[in-house]
Amino acid sequence: MTIAITSQGAPPLLAVTGLVKTFSAGGRPPQRLHAVDGVDFTLARGQALGLVGESGCGKSTLAAILARLTDPDRGRILFDGVDLTAVPARRAAHAPWRRRIQMVFQDAGDSLDPRLTAIEAVARPLARLNGLRGAALTRAAAEALDRVHLPAALFGRLPHQLSGGQLARVGLARAIAPGPELLILDEPTSALDVSIQAVILRLIDDLRRELGLACLFVSHDLNVVRMMCGEVLVMYLGRVVEQGPADAVFDHPAHPYTAGLAAAIPRLDGLRHESAAPAARRRMTGEPMSPIDPDPDRCRFDPRCPLAFDLCRQRMPVLTPQAGTPAAPDAPPHLAACHLAGGTGG
Ligand SMILES: Nc1ncnc2c1ncn2[C@@H]1O[C@H](COP(=O)(O)OP(=O)(O)O)[C@@H](O)[C@H]1O
Ligand SMILES: [Mg+2]
């Protein structure tokens, strides 16, 4: 077995290989919906990795697999050298690594127990995962709530007595309290008003730096990912189509899908996105391919791609290093899965 080595020379905190998750789609013969279809990546300690792509591309399914809330059909998840898939999801709550990987959900209001006060919501998992009791437990829960700047006067409030932003803070406190090394955030601010989103995003960024957390940050919003993450994975219908340093991927998209996404969304600084392939900046047209038993020898993006040609219907492109993208010496490689993307030829 080979263990991928990150640019810093240390083994990655998280190394994912060949993850596949399908769901039954009924039919006779039985059909399968391919939600996550062969995903590989690594995440270094303390790094923020963004996961972007349109609704339905498999982001939440991938996040749930990594948080061990659901089992993959195939694939391996190595976390600090430990194979997480050795324990099925239904028993993961009691796994020794459970404290070290925490999840932040899209809607904190929905994910919090309506009968627990803010401090109880934070204390519950702390008691289970860290074995704290009594005054030590209360102190640790209060410390976590202080870290997310929830006023102490609100510690005894129930979820329905808190605002959206306050609920998001409680959700974050609950996730960081056990002392995780990896935080998985699935659209953590998309249920919030825009003005509150920016405040919570800054808080997440501060917590990540202060606590040295690695983050997998799921969002359909490219600007948010660009602001929050040094690296990015772009997913399309269950597959990673492009990955690399966020600046390289967004400023020099190599996959026509990424170029289309980047062109469709105005940048905060008002600049236009430059693409290596100007034709790819044309609007994406056509219907996405069905995720039900898709042709394994056809590029998933083919039906919507302005640049598609014969090969795209004969062979699935694989992730290939991109030449000519300016990058820092220790930056992760820029990869794209497109027959037309400018590979290094090596
Ligand atoms: N529990 C499930 N049962 C059946 N299909 C599912 C289930 N969860 C997700 N899917 C399907 O898997 C695909 C990926 O969904 P999801 O991971 O939620 O995408 P995203 O988070 O990117 O919007 C979609 O086609 C969705 O309909
Ligand atoms: Mg989702």
TrEMBL record:
<protein>
    <recommendedName>
        <fullName>Glutathione import ATP-binding protein GsiA</fullName>
        <ecNumber>7.4.2.10</ecNumber>
    </recommendedName>
</protein>
<dbReference type="Pfam" id="PF08352">
    <property type="entry name" value="oligo_HPY"/>
</dbReference>
<dbReference type="InterPro" id="IPR050319">
    <property type="entry name" value="ABC_transp_ATP-bind"/>
</dbReference>
<keyword id="KW-0067">ATP-binding</keyword>
<keyword id="KW-0378">Hydrolase</keyword>
<dbReference type="InterPro" id="IPR003593">
    <property type="entry name" value="AAA+_ATPase"/>
</dbReference>
<comment type="subunit">
    <text>The complex is composed of two ATP-binding proteins (GsiA), two transmembrane proteins (GsiC and GsiD) and a solute-binding protein (GsiB).</text>
</comment>
<dbReference type="GO" id="GO:0005524">
    <property type="term" value="F:ATP binding"/>
</dbReference>
<keyword id="KW-0677">Repeat</keyword>
<keyword id="KW-1278">Translocase</keyword>
<keyword id="KW-0472">Membrane</keyword>
<feature type="region of interest" description="Disordered">
    <location>
        <begin position="277"/>
        <end position="297"/>
    </location>
</feature>
<feature type="domain" description="ABC transporter">
    <location>
        <begin position="14"/>
        <end position="262"/>
    </location>
</feature>
<dbReference type="InterPro" id="IPR003439">
    <property type="entry name" value="ABC_transporter-like_ATP-bd"/>
</dbReference>
<dbReference type="InterPro" id="IPR027417">
    <property type="entry name" value="P-loop_NTPase"/>
</dbReference>
<keyword id="KW-0547">Nucleotide-binding</keyword>
<dbReference type="InterPro" id="IPR017871">
    <property type="entry name" value="ABC_transporter-like_CS"/>
</dbReference>
<dbReference type="Pfam" id="PF00005">
    <property type="entry name" value="ABC_tran"/>
</dbReference>
<dbReference type="InterPro" id="IPR013563">
    <property type="entry name" value="Oligopep_ABC_C"/>
</dbReference>
<keyword id="KW-0813">Transport</keyword>
<comment type="similarity">
    <text>Belongs to the ABC transporter superfamily. Glutathione importer (TC 3.A.1.5.11) family.</text>
</comment>
<keyword id="KW-1003">Cell membrane</keyword>
<keyword id="KW-0997">Cell inner membrane</keyword>
<comment type="function">
    <text>Part of the ABC transporter complex GsiABCD involved in glutathione import. Responsible for energy coupling to the transport system.</text>
</comment>
